[in-house]
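Per reviewer request, we include the raw input and output of the structure prediction for the construct analysed in the revised manuscript.
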Amino acid sequence: MDPRTTDADDTAFRMGAGALGLFAGAALGLFVSVLGYLVAETELSFVHALVGGALAGLVSGVVLPVETMAVVEGVFHFFIGFFVTSAGERAESPVESPQYLKLACVFGVALAVAFFILSFFY
């Protein structure tokens, strides 16, 4: 263990990762519920998806903070790719970004393009 770190630093990092995980989980929960409603016409409650995603993000942030921070960054890149493409702009990822973040951005772009194409059929 690094002698410069303290238990307070570890607790603060876990709480910060939990808070970011809470927001990322809530965003993913809402996104999944909207996707389920649009694609499969399920009657999933938006509140259940929001609370479930938020709690999952919070717990994972407290238990696995480093991994949760990587997931939060991936979710952020996914939504950047999705919303930038939905707005009709070109999405670019910096060259120094890790491969999984570029893939998250590309997946967001692909989903936005798929929604655009499917909108012509409905």
